[in-house]
Amino acid sequence: MTAAHTAATVIDLNCDLGEGFGAWTLGDDEALLAVVTSANIACGFHAGDPGIMRRLCRTAAASGIAIGAHVGYRDLVGFGRRRIEIAPQDLVNDIVYQIAALDGFARLAGDRVSYVKPHGALYNTIAAEPEYARALAEAVRLYDPDLHVLGLAGSPGLHEVAATGLATVAEAFADRAYTAEGRLVPRTQQGSVVHDVDLIAERCTRLARTGEVESIDGTTVRISAQTICVHGDTPGAVAIARRVRAALLAEGVTLAPFVSGDRQ
Amino acid sequence: MTAAHTAATVIDLNCDLGEGFGAWTLGDDEALLAVVTSANIACGFHAGDPGIMRRLCRTAAASGIAIGAHVGYRDLVGFGRRRIEIAPQDLVNDIVYQIAALDGFARLAGDRVSYVKPHGALYNTIAAEPEYARALAEAVRLYDPDLHVLGLAGSPGLHEVAATGLATVAEAFADRAYTAEGRLVPRTQQGSVVHDVDLIAERCTRLARTGEVESIDGTTVRISAQTICVHGDTPGAVAIARRVRAALLAEGVTLAPFVSGDRQ
Amino acid sequence: MTAAHTAATVIDLNCDLGEGFGAWTLGDDEALLAVVTSANIACGFHAGDPGIMRRLCRTAAASGIAIGAHVGYRDLVGFGRRRIEIAPQDLVNDIVYQIAALDGFARLAGDRVSYVKPHGALYNTIAAEPEYARALAEAVRLYDPDLHVLGLAGSPGLHEVAATGLATVAEAFADRAYTAEGRLVPRTQQGSVVHDVDLIAERCTRLARTGEVESIDGTTVRISAQTICVHGDTPGAVAIARRVRAALLAEGVTLAPFVSGDRQ
Amino acid sequence: MTAAHTAATVIDLNCDLGEGFGAWTLGDDEALLAVVTSANIACGFHAGDPGIMRRLCRTAAASGIAIGAHVGYRDLVGFGRRRIEIAPQDLVNDIVYQIAALDGFARLAGDRVSYVKPHGALYNTIAAEPEYARALAEAVRLYDPDLHVLGLAGSPGLHEVAATGLATVAEAFADRAYTAEGRLVPRTQQGSVVHDVDLIAERCTRLARTGEVESIDGTTVRISAQTICVHGDTPGAVAIARRVRAALLAEGVTLAPFVSGDRQ
Q1: Å from B33 to nearest chain D CA?
Q2: Among C211, C239, C215, C238, which Cα is nearest to C225's?
Q3: Rounded distance, CA D229 to CA D226, Å?
Q4: Which of A116, B66, B153, C136 yields a CA-CA distance of 20 to 30 A from C174?
Q5: Does A100 contact B100 at a Cβ distance shorter than 8 Å?
């Protein structure tokens, strides 16, 4: 623990959850719910089914974990990882549908959806293309303008959403390398993913406490993030997530949802 | 107009709407929205997509038409007309999902879902089997116990739902024949469907004003119904629906949703 | 009939068919099967279901109409009209699946799939992008290298497919305007679609007999096409298709599938 | 190895494979392909996607494992485990579609589909209800009357299929208890599933060598089966399957597909 530490250092941990479908499971939802403070729950378009959504909302609500609508392209076989050239207005409607469906289960659990995070290919599209960022913003504004929008720290899309007046939340990735400009190193490039668990934990604590990470070039780069995304479906995902949580707590960082209080 | 007529005679007209999907259309939604007082809107499981749901909710809300969640089995290719042996608890979740999704679009239109009507094979299952009627009731109670449940007049399922304390609404069918016991004549039996437009209109006005219809045996049978279902996807559907509406109005019957007031 | 006419003038007429799904219909398959010589039959990914596929294969086979696999993106709600960023190798597999499924019904009818035509957004992708054209070619070569590939006349994609050694068939569109360079005028541009039935028929006969059309600029442009596509789902589609067929026959053009003989 | 052993004792081992979908996996296909002699491969309706189908057909063909079409209800979220009240004629078409699609990938691998086995709820429906057994038989006869039909030993459905003239293959279950009448003990009943690996292996070898198993009542019952089904998705599935295979081989039983030779 360094001198720079203050009690005020707070960060949120988010993870994609509820990504099974029917008989299929993906990731260890129960284990990860014990780690994160915000749960991005799939809403049935790229993954997730009503039974999973209900169960996760119940556990999240009971644990004080914020419920986020993890909205995606309607593409089960592609798991929402393939860009679809959807008309922006259709995307608005698809997003409203997904938020509303999940919000139903959140209400059953005495809670509400607190934020919206796009999934997979839609995440990348919205981060990069203002037209789609505006579609997301329109959907959120129409459904509930108090919802936060979670997106890539420093991305044009998140700025676009913020410009519409919605509350935005910037996220960093626990296991991803950054360029000297603060962008994610593309997955096609070597070194784009950090695999060493200790290094991941160390980077996360540094980020939480100082807002800095070491870039792939060795320079120091500032990433302004209110939440760190831990993955749920990679090998060793649970172990990494637990390690990150433990390291943050050990360094005196407070873990808490970026949204707080009872929304019901 | 007979002496028996009183100004207090009120009935609701409901119709299944929003049964297209993507590029496919079914029925003439716009024309039928000018006829009915309650709109059973498909929620995406057997038909309906987010764009259709939004558009219909907007028109219904603007016209004072009550919005009902027309919930069905998840079976697009079967249009919800095939019974699926779903676990009752899974059905609860599927119904909550559908109601919540539609309610999202109703809220966008400044309105709310007012009632729930099961569609197709699920309608028949719930009418006949208490276990599934209780599943529907549980879903409604969980999501919003103020929602009404629309079902077959005189059916065991509707009694079961009523026994749980929910408000139920009994419906009669404009173009269906009834047995002397007040049951629907099965579709497999000759004479089960009335095709003569004038006769349909006459039967509806009699039903609305006296609660009676002539059974297929020629006897008089009482059907206690607060709403009459006009079909939207049969040949001549719009013409029949318009004729029924005109006849009811001509006979001094007031057409109004069974639920009233602004639910927002 | 001009002096240029010879008995040898032969053209194929193709149309997208079988585009319903379950309870939904689109276009008048029966009427169009009486017009065309090649039927592009949807295979269940963007439209089409096993019942429709079987029925159309039976009628096509009985009428000497060539059966083509109209393969598309797996996107029912988007009707295959939205580009999906699918990995080329996944596209190969998706195309094989669709061809094979349709071929099953063709065999039931004592016939075989004769050709493959991509649908909607996949048509445009393959016309323009060599990587995807090669994926289509690979799928066809793997499944049956004797199948023809139908695509946009003069497109890079069709050239790419031809370069792999497969037989290609170039198509022109009955109701579309062409640029002076022989490209389709984009739909976003005014005048891109010809609506006058007589003009459509006249353009088709000229094209069939001389290989020429008048471009949107008024110049004469050569379109080397062995088949003309008539639309099945636009207003007046059947009337236009019939008119084109009648005009071609009246001008002494022989209508015949570009593939011939019994493939069984 | 006992005196009763003869070189002629041959049995087939089959397993449900290819039950993933997109990003989701289920069971360890690679491990199980090293155990079985016949692979029931999902065809995309209840599980399975084109990429999985192609990969499994390739491995099966290369290993001399017979390829079977594991046909199911169109119900991804229910994994084909829920009965759907489908019209028999629609079932015929759905089955043809699935067989044909898989056969496409079998052909790519230089092989052919050799048999058809219904999956999940469809398995039970066909075993018990002659109308649906005939629908399956009709689909197989239409597509390829040389295909074998795999079903529950002693079931009315399998008899019905055999009565149509198709070759049938009776299966026993490695880990299921049998009644004194040779029926499966219902899963709802205690003792319906055998969990002891040694006992499972012993029962399988006895069945293969003598055609007998000990019923749940302790009596000896004859089960005439040409194939034994090992499960792929239960806990310890691979270990059980390997143990059964090893025990059969140790007892001198020959493992071979019930269909033999190159069908190409």
Answers
A1: 32
A2: C211
A3: 10
A4: C136
A5: yes
Name every chain D residue with its beta carbon within 8 A of the beta carbon of A47.
23
The residue type of A195 is H
Enumerate neighbours of A (3 or more CB pairs within 8 A): B, C, D
Task: Indicate the residue of B102, B103, B143 with minimum beta-carbon distance to A108.
Answer: B143
Inter-residue contact D117 to D166 (CB < 8 Å): no
Give strand pairing partners of C38: C14, C66
Distance from C-alpha of A50 to C-alpha of B93, rounded to nearest angstrom? 5
Establish if B82 touches chain D: CB-CB under 8 angstroms: yes
Q: Where are the domains of chain C?
A: 10-263
B51 CB near a chain C CB, below 8 Å? no
Which pairing describes strands B168-173 and B227-229: parallel, antiparallel, or unpaired?
A: parallel
The HSE-up count of residue B199 (CA atoms within 13 Å, CB side) is 9
Domain B10-263 classification at class level: alpha beta
CB spacing of B85 vs D83 below 8 angstroms: yes
H or E element that contains A65: none
**What does the angle CA B3 – CA B6 – CA B9 come to, to the nearest 5 degrees?**
130
- CB within 8 Å of C110: residues ≥ 6 apart: C61, C264
Give me the total of CB pairs closer than 8 Å, taking one residue from chain C and one from chain D: 68
SS3 D7: coil
Neighbouring subunits of B (3+ Cβ pairs under 8 A): A, C, D
The residue of chain C nearest to residue A94, with distances taken between CA atoms, is: C77
Residue type, C111: D
Please name the amino acid found at residue A192.
S
Q: From B40, B56, B58, select the one nearest B108 (Cα to Cα).
A: B58
Nearest C-alpha of chain D: how many angstroms from C135?
Answer: 14
Polymer length in residues for chain D: 264
- Strand boundaries in chain D, DSSP class E: 10-17, 38-42, 66-71, 113-118, 148-152, 168-173, 212-214, 220-222, 227-229, 254-255
Q: Extract the tokens encoding B118.
A: 């099961």
Within 8 A of D90 by CB-CB distance, chain C residues are 50-51
Chosen from D73, D85, D123 to mutate, greatest number of chain B CBs within 10 A: D85
What token pair was written down for C54? 């079987």
Residue C101: list chain D partners with CB under 8 A: 97, 100-101, 104
Residues in chain B: 264
> Any alpha helices (H) in D110-169, and if so which ranges?
120-128, 130-143, 156-163
Structure tokens at D135: 């629908």
Q: Do A121 and C74 touch (CB under 8 A)?
A: no
Q: What is the pTM of this model?
A: 0.96
Angle at A107 between CA A103 and CA A110, to 5 degrees: 140
Neighbours of chain D (3+ CB pairs under 8 A): A, B, C
**In whole angstroms, what is the distance from residue A188 CA to residue A238 CA?**
24
Among A75, A85, A121, select the one facing C121 at the smallest CB separation: A85
B217 CA to centre of own chain: 26
Tell me whether residues B77 and D75 touch, CB distance under 8 A. Answer: no
Which chain C residue has the Cα nearest residue D143? C108
Distances (CA, A) of A114 to A147, A264, B113, C66: 5, 10, 22, 56
